[in-house]
Amino acid sequence: MNIQIFGSSKSFDTKKAERWFKERRIKYQYIDVPSKGLSPREYQSVKQKVGFSALVNTKCRAYEDLFMAYITPDAQEEKLLEHPELFMTPIVRNGKEATVGYCPDVWANWE
């Protein structure tokens, strides 16, 4: 199992996801999304699994500041990669599998 948690230190769901994996002694790699972001390949892999709309945090301040609701889908993807604070967290990957948010039921099936 090769778990990656893309999260934010301010996100409670990210902290819950980290705790879930720690309690089960499952090793994971943590990537801070606001500072590092996702690489284009990682982004495509996750988007293919969960869809674009699941990746965008519509409740964050940057969503409104960047007028995400009013621009074309192609421009939205570009803005999402430029401004990683728009990602919904945590994004948990296990190889080609991926989830967005706190999903312990799905993670339990990965074991």
Summarize the structure.
It is built from seven helices and four strands; from the N terminus they run βαβαααααββα.
Topology summary:
Elements: E1 3-7, H1 12-23, E2 28-32, H2 33-36, H3 40-50, H4 52-55, H5 61-65, H6 73-82, E3 91-94, E4 97-100, H7 104-110
Parallel strand pairs: 1-2
Antiparallel strand pairs: 1-3, 3-4
Account of the 3D structure:
The chain has 111 residues and is α+β, with helices and mostly antiparallel strands. The protein contains seven helices and four strands; from the N terminus they run E-H-E-H-H-H-H-H-E-E-H. It has a four-stranded mixed β-sheet with strand order 2-1-3-4, with helices on both faces. The longest helix is centred in the first third of the chain and has 12 residues, at 12-23. The protein is globular. The mean pLDDT is 91.
CATH topology: Glutaredoxin
**How far is the first residue's CA from the last residue's CA?**
7 Å
Q: Unreliable stretches, pLDDT < 50, 5 or more residues?
A: none
Q: How many helices? A: 7
Main sheet: which strands, in order across?
2-1-3-4
User: What shape does the CA trace take?
Assistant: globular
- Regarding CATH, which class? Alpha Beta
Architecture per CATH nomenclature, i.e. the level-2 architecture: 3-Layer(aba) Sandwich
Order of helices and strands: EHEHHHHHEEH
Helix content: 40-55%
User: Average pLDDT, to the nearest integer?
Assistant: 91
| Range of strand content | 15-25%
* Count of the separate structural domains: 1
Radius of gyration: 14 Å
The biggest sheet amounts to:
4 strands, mixed
Question: Class by helix and strand content?
Answer: alpha+beta
